[in-house]
Amino acid sequence: MINNLTRFRVLQLYKRIIKLSHSWQSINHPLKTSEEQLYIRNEARELFRKNQHVNNLNEIEEHIREGEARIELACHYKNPYPRPVNLPTYSLPPNHNRIRFKSEYEIEDISRPIYLKSYETKEDIPDNEEQLKTDKS
User: Fold this and answer.
1) Rounded mean pLDDT of 35-48?
2) How distant, in Å, are the alpha carbons of 6, 17, 20, 48 from that of 74?
3) Which residues form the domain of 95?
4) pTM, two decimal places
5) Do 82 and 119 meet the contact criterion of CB atoms below 8 Å apart?
6) What family is this (predicted)?
């Protein structure tokens, strides 16, 4: 259940993002200012709507931290788009011929920056029984 303080923080974050989109000025390409403003508003709306069903307080806190991190990165680098990330080679998915262990999923999750959490698509960790059935086929 979401308490009033968490709801207030989420609404304040949304208001902060919308206000940022109205005052945003593109430094590198002044002609693209309106395009970047529109991107910020649309991205905020899309992600807030996508996550409106989340009821777990820990997940909500993670999303708030992600939003704040993205705001800080955008203001610091004057670029509203997500920054590219280079993951260590040990955290990349292995060949499809091999069974992936739970620890590999955990390492991959830890090495992903918080500002890219909304873009991830979590793979389901298959049960060992399902793995064995597929390996035998």
Assistant:
1) 95
2) 24, 11, 10, 18
3) 84-137
4) 0.69
5) yes
6) Belongs to the complex I LYR family.
DSSP code of residue 79 = -
Can you give the pLDDT at residue 123?
Answer: 42
Q: What is the DSSP string of 15-73?
A: HHHHHHHHH---SS-GGGHHHHHHHHHHHHHHHHHHTTT---HHHHHHHHHHHHHHHHH
Is 49 found in the same domain as 12?
yes
**Amino acid (1-letter code) at residue 34:** S
Q: Which amino acid type is present at position 27?
A: I
Same domain, yes or no: 122 and 67: no
Same domain, 114 and 73: no
SS3 at position 131 = helix
How far is residue 92's CA from residue 19's CA, in Å, rounded to a whole number? 37
Total structural domains within the chain: 2
Residue 89's pLDDT is what? 58
